Amino acid sequence: MQPRLLITLVQDENNPENLKQVNVSVRVGQAVDVVAQAGKPKTITGFQTHTTPVLLAYGERAELANDEYISLTPYMEGLVILRKNVDYDAPSADSKKK
User: Where does the UniProt annotation place the signal sequence (predicted)?
Assistant: First the structure.
């Protein structure tokens, strides 16, 4: 038996052969069964936003909170390798004021 943890890793810019741990925002909530549902339905309900690393309880699932990174695996559990999203535009202070 092992704990259900979530640790996110990205490729190190200085040494591309190594991975480094990165803290990202994830939503953690109760898992919802989405088998055979059309489109891209929500996979969790009643979520809270945490920063990785996170310990997941029984029946919980995690998903990335924003589009800054893209997961290279469909399962957000254990060690997850992320890739920087080149199309991501960080929200600026000017857009928040409007």
Answer: none
